[in-house]
Amino acid sequence: MIHQLRKTIKIQRLLVIQRLLAIQKIVIVLAVSLSAVMSAKSMAALEDYQARLDLVTANKGFASQDARLVAFMDVVYDYQMTEFPESATWLGYPGQNSRWSDYSLAGIEKRKLDSRTLLKAIDSIEAEALSVSARLDFQLLHKDLSLDVAGQAFPDELMPINQMGGVQQDLAQMITLMPARKLADYEDIVARLESADVVIDQTLVLLAKGLEQSITPPAVTLRNIPQQVANQLFDKPMDSPLLSPFKQFPKAVPLVQQKRLKTRAIAAYEDRIAPAYQRLLTYLQDDYLPNAVQAVGISNLANGQAWYAHRATRSTTTDLTAKQIHTLGLSEVARIRAAMEQVIVDSGFDGDFDAFTEFLRRDPQFYYSNKEDLLRQYRDIAKRADAELPALFGKLPRLPYGVKMIPSYAEKSQTTAYYQPGAHSMGRAGIFFANTYALNTRPKWEMEALTLHEAMPGHHLQISLAKEQGDMHPWRRDLYRITAFVEGWGLYSESLGEEMGFYKDPYSKFGQLTYEMWRAVRLVVDTGMHSLGWSRQRAIDFFIANSAKSEHDITVEIDRYIVWPGQALAYKMGELKISELRDYATREMGDDFDIRTFHDRVLEAGPIPLDILEQRIKAWVASAK
């Protein structure tokens, strides 16, 4: 029996290697078509970066080190926009909408080398000669480049797909985000469609290489991915979300051009995209899922403890160990649990914690039976929140936002909600996406806290304000993301609900505490699974025991933490620091404390590491005193 098992495994590995080699040959051929869609302007820009970087490194022609740093940041920004055209589309950066990022093995290695080159170049800038504001830019960019280079020790690229995202979702999302107002826009869309198969096949190569090295997401989290890929296969091409821009053209596109473009789009789907997705589906079903890693923690992979430590450091902007974060999480769980128990007593409910949470999970009064009613209530909460903002903020963003359903092809494996930033230059508002799948898992009592987190005063306010900072370098404004700050602010925003007139009934208040508990639980289960040997089921059970969230939501959340190690730590760590700084400023400033000014000071520099935020707030308090 053991001999036969070994023989079977050996045959499977040979098949994987053979398929890997075959896929690599396909990609080498298809890479020609990828480079063909790169505009001459983009190629020239890529060639120009080294010359521009050489000038910075040589320190020739700059009036000051501030000017030299600006030139360097310009290079980094333009380089990253060209290397990652999808980000350029999101942000409205011109000239990249016809291309996809190159995720070939050679392309990935080139970017790693480029990161090392950029880090060496920024080290040549004389930091002590920079002005105060420029020194912050230098500090943030240097830290980001250093973390990128440190991260090269860990092969994240070999896990390019999971239930949260990948080519089975991202391609359609990108096409729907692209501008579609004139003929040139449609030419860009078609160019992307005609090279989308290259991106899918590059993903296949990375998956096969990862499987060869036993580097995959845990098998249990992959269960819905084949269906997600199958959801992109249609008998009628025009049913595909990839072709949605071709269902209705703007008047600016002549009729004769509409027919030509639609024909090319359909041909791209039938001849390239659908066959590539079918290759991906077959590989996932026949090879990848049956042989994927079984253990859930990243510490079970090669160099896994160090990998997780790097992820945790990047996510939290602290140097706390997994054990320290785990202990902090247990403390927060105990504190919030006591507050939840008090709400149960105050509500007059006749029963214990388990009975109350079961009541909240099961009673029909807490659920909508219609998706539109659920969405309508989210919009109502959002509008009521908007009216309370001037009392808490001196500065508000100009960019509007909307509330939409998560697309049906992704809703089953997506979390309860998420926020998608807008862009003035693209004519696109921010969007709060709410999940309307399985309505019996979307309770009314969580809706107020969730809306405040994702929309106003949470992500939309913070991210939009950062984007509207006119004197901030585009690299910081558009590309620099500190998860501990961004998600910490989102969680802190939930706590502002009482000051804004929300959480009036005990159920909504319990919902707010449930959401805070949700983030505290993350500190425990994320470190537990990825560093301390917890099983997936132990994490689920711990979550259920301390929360009123549905088991479906909890399972989806745990699987998210499994495939995004460390990311979930950011929320509570950031919120704790912002709340700590508010308490500090209130205590130190006494009657002179103004909540509007405090919030403006927290947000004015955009997302920054927590230690730098603390330095800035304490300096503001000292100057005010």
Brief descriptors of the model:
625 residues; mainly alpha; three-stranded mixed sheet; 63% helix; disordered N terminus
Terminal residue distance: 78 Å
Which structural category do the helix and sheet elements fall into?
mainly alpha
Range of helix content: 55-70%
Order of helices and strands: HHHHHHHHHHHHHHEEEHHHHHHHHHH
Main sheet makeup: 3 strands, mixed
Strand content: under 5%
Could you give the order of strands across the largest sheet?
1-3-2
Number of domains: 2
Ranges with pLDDT <50 over ≥5 residues?
Answer: 1-43
- Total DSSP helices: 24
Determine the mean pLDDT: 91
Number of strands: 3
**Radius of gyration over alpha carbons?**
25 Å
Q: What is the global morphology?
A: globular
Note the topology:
Blueprint: H1 2-36, H2 40-58, H3 65-83, H4 85-91, H5 105-122, H6 132-150, H7 167-177, H8 183-212, H9 225-230, H10 255-291, H11 304-316, H12 322-347, H13 353-362, H14 371-388, E1 401-405, E2 417-420, E3 430-434, H15 447-454, H16 459-467, H17 474-479, H18 483-495, H19 506-530, H20 536-545, H21 551-563, H22 570-589, H23 595-603, H24 610-624
Parallel strand pairs: 1-3
Antiparallel strand pairs: 2-3
What does the model show?
The chain has 625 residues and is mainly alpha-helical. The protein has two domains: 14-294, no CATH class; 310-575, no CATH class. The protein is 63% helix and 2% strand. A three-stranded mixed beta sheet has the order 1-3-2, covered by helices on one side. Helix 2 (40-58) packs antiparallel against helix 3 (65-83), helix 3 (65-83) runs antiparallel to helix 5 and helix 22 packs parallel to helix 24 (610-624). The model is unreliable at 1-43 (pLDDT under 50).
